[in-house]
Amino acid sequence: MFLNHYHKFGINQNSVVLSNDVFYRVLRRERYKADRANDCFSLVSFEVGDPESDGSPFDLLMEVMESRLRATDEIGWMDKRHVGFLLSNTQYRGAWIFANNVLQVLMKHTQAITGFVIYVYPTSLEEVVKDEIDSGGNGSNLTPGPTEDLLVSEDTTFPGRSFQPTIISAEYSKRKGKALHPVFVNQLPLMKRVLDLITVIPMMIVLSPIMLFATGLIKLVSKGPIFFKQERVGYLGLIFTMYKFRTMEISVSKEEHRKYMAALIRGEMRDQPMLKKETHLIRFGAFLRKTGIDELPQLWNVLRGEMSLVGPRPPIPYESQEYLRWYNGRFEVMPGLTGLWQVGKKNDLSFEEMIRIDLQYAKNYNLLMDIKIVFMTPFTILQRFFKR
Q: What are phi and psi of 285, to 5 degrees?
């Protein structure tokens, strides 16, 4: 039964319970829709055991749900014991009221179901006003039972998925649910990290004469530090310090770049290149940038595990603050020294085109793609260097 795409239930034979794989794809699709619309959704999980066994509350649960689910909601197996109810456009409190109402009905007929688990997306969307539920809408006439009557499952795992979500208290008094977002994040492949290590260490040795040359050159032509250090946003939003060879004067204001990037991200400068032409470069700074030598200190970031050889470029925190929610998918892979759009047109791309390419990489990346991008990068740099 669990290998089929659906399982028919209840009074309406057209109703189905989606299989685990299909339900997970539906969850991902709902996530993409919610990100695009800046919306939210919740997932309520009930443990029913084997629905074919004697005493299983599965059929009773389906009968109770039959008159309560909307046309936009979905039902699916989270694993062989847990059924999930996807409630679109529903924050935690609405999901809690829905689930608690169902639970009160079920407990009049069976003791086989004594609790439920609520997952929310995005985690930051939660209702915080105490009396918001009584302000109107479909839920205004529903009153949740006392907190002590609600037996929330102590299980801290997301059924059917090996990547576990960050657990947030599911007590009604805290108006929160378990975070659903981490369930959508793919685990970083071990072989990607192995590729980074077996590649970056020889690269640091081979390229050390070039880095020593850059060090001496910067020291010779400009007063100030050799390295430029800057906070960047990495994997899952982690802030880290990224290193580059300094190519600009130390007195340059950051405000001009901040304003340029904010306007670019908001779509106010669609006719402008994604990479701004800098005017305050030190002597030979343009050469260091055009050859990519200025980026070589990031091999240290790769060695430390803060970056990968291949991945989306890590943004500055003030850039990420301007992001639309669907842009954040680029944080679900490790940021990289080079990437899919870097070996393409680069400066000819708009910001949104760059984001789309990064999301394409985040969704489809594999070891062969990384190896191909690594080998393409030096040829792309040489091609651009001799273009003019």
A: -65, -40
Q: Measured in whole angstroms, how far is the alpha carbon of residue 129 from the centre of its chain?
A: 28
Q: Using the structure block, give the residue that is written with the tokens 């929330």.
A: 152
pTM for this predicted structure:
0.74
Asked if residues 49 and 61 have their Cβ atoms less than 8 Å apart, the reply is: no
Angle at 141 between CA 139 and CA 142, to 5 degrees: 70
Q: Is the pLDDT of residue 330 over 50?
A: yes
- Residue 125: pLDDT above 90? no
Eight-class DSSP state of 164 = P
pLDDT digits 0-9 by tens, 7-21: 444 434 345 899 999
H-helix or E-strand spanning residue 385: helix 367-385
Q: Is 366 helix (H, G, I), strand (E, B) or coil?
A: coil
Give φ, ψ of 121 to 5 degrees: -145, 130
- CB proximity list for 48: less than 8 A, separation 6 or greater: 56, 57, 58, 61, 81, 82, 83, 112, 113
Tell me the DSSP string of 96-129: HHHHHHHHHHHTTT-SS----EEEEESTT-----
Examine the pLDDT at 172 and tell me if it is beyond 60. no
DSSP secondary-structure letter at 295? G
204-254 pLDDT, tens per residue? 999 999 999 999 999 999 988 999 999 999 998 889 999 999 999 887 778
For residue 116, give the nearest of 163, 50, 58, 46 by alpha carbon: 46
Average pLDDT over residues 52-58: 81
Nearest to 153 by CA among 175, 170, 173: 170
Q: Where are the domains of the chain?
A: 6-184, 190-385
Tell me which fold the domain 6-184 belongs to.
Alpha-Beta Plaits (3.30.70)
- pLDDT higher than threshold 50 for residue 332: yes
Average pLDDT, the chain: 79
Residues 6 or more apart whose CB falls under 8 angstroms from that of 190 comprise none
> Which pLDDT value is given to residue 361?
92
- Can you tell me the distance from the alpha carbon of 357 to that of 25, in angstroms, rounded to the nearest whole number? 21
Please give the sequence-ordered ranges of beta strands (E in DSSP) within the chain, or none if there are none.
Answer: 6-8, 16-18, 41-47, 74-77, 82-88, 117-121, 178-179, 227-233, 239-245, 308-310, 336-338
The token duo for 375 is 């080998």
Type of residue at 215? T
